[in-house]
Design a protein that fits this description.
Layout: H1 2-9, E1 14-19, H2 32-39, E2 48-50, E3 53-57, E4 63-67, E5 72-77, E6 87-93, E7 99-104, E8 110-114, H3 141-150, H4 155-160, H5 170-179, H6 193-212, E9 254-258, E10 261-265
Antiparallel strand pairs: 1-6, 2-3, 3-4, 4-8, 5-7, 6-7, 9-10
The protein binds a DNA duplex (16 and 16 nucleotides) through helix 5.
Length: about 280
DNA sequence: ACATCCACCTGCTCGC
DNA sequence: TGCGAGCAGGTGGATG
């Protein structure tokens, strides 16, 4: 999504902004009128992200922050069409080219405008609580390993905790744990250095492969800025694969309940710990 | 400070 | 066909 935004909107000057509904800007305290006024006339200078948060730096130093939540998407479409039911915001540009839309069915996504200075590692201060993701230079594997072993929780919870490491959600956590042959309930404090190394290697591989594939598109909600699907779903080893044979050992993949959601794993490759932490 | 739970939403699919 | 239950790729504020 970040790469798509870079391609479609960087370098363009915003001519008009519209906001639909009142949930999308719930994190923008000054409200929609302020949001619109401060974006109009600005040029987008870059497209950045940390984990699952995106931001578009503007030519006046402010940053348009975005999170897609569960069902948010940015789409570039020919200018002037009627916004669809779930369109929450739209930006038109003074070059008359494609407009940008933010669409969001479940409304867990959101937009905000931050005009304060970036923190030392180049991230808007509003995202200060979000840890570096494994693909950025600021990510420190040794520091992550040390923090992990100080925690008293299960390894999957830790992977999903964006204050520990960002960018990993339910799918990529399950995929990385399968690649590293770890059960999700393994306690973080009992992980051996080699296992943490394996896990980090797996996380890195999974994230890079998923990005290279354009993401994981189960349906039309999960598409790139140009509307195209990613194809990482064809590389999924466990997520959504209950009943399918494990590609390593042939054992049937199972689905388990895990904190009101699902975890998929191979019961043989990822043996349950004697004293697990969920 | 840390760990965990739950609310926040819409829409689709499934079983009865 | 209707209806309720369950489920969906996340986050952050409240509560232990």
């Amino acid at each position: 999504m970040r790469a798509g935004l870079e391609h479609w909107v960087v370098g363009r000057r915003i001519a008009a902004v519209e906001v639909f509904g009142d949930r999308t800007l719930r994190r923008h305290a000054p409200g929609p009128a302020d949001f619109i006024a401060r974006l109009t006339g600005r040029t987008i200078t870059a497209a950045r992200r940390r984990g699952k948060f995106l931001w578009l730096p503007l030519d006046d130093g402010a940053n348009l922050l975005a999170h897609l939540g569960m069902s948010g998407q940015f789409l570039a479409v020919p200018e002037g069409g009627k916004p669809s039911k779930h369109t929450k915001a739209r930006w038109r540009f003074d070059d008359g080219g494609p407009e940008l839309r933010f669409c969001d069915q479940r409304t867990f996504g959101g937009l905000a405008l931050a005009d304060d200075e970036l923190s030392a590692d180049g991230v808007p201060r509003a995202l200060g609580h979000v840890a570096p993701d494994p693909l950025e230079p600021a990510f420190d594997p040794r520091r992550f390993a040390a923090t992990l072993r100080r925690r008293r929780t299960g390894v999957k919870r830790a992977l999903l905790d964006q204050t520990l490491v960002s960018g990993i959600g339910n799918i990529y956590a399950d995929e990385a744990l399968w690649h590293a042959k770890l059960h999700f309930a393994r306690g973080t404090d009992g992980l051996r250095p080699g296992e943490i190394g394996r896990l980090l290697g797996a996380v890195d591989d999974v994230l890079r492969a998923a990005i290279a594939a354009g993401g994981t598109s189960f349906d039309a909600l999960y598409v790139a800025v140009n509307g195209e699907s990613g194809w990482f779903d064809r590389s999924l080893e466990v997520y959504g694969q209950a009943g399918e044979p494990c590609s390593r050992c042939g054992t049937s993949i199972i689905r388990m309940r895990f904190t009101n959601r699902s975890s998929y794993l191979c019961p043989k490759c990822q043996p349950r710990p004697r004293r697990g932490r969920w």
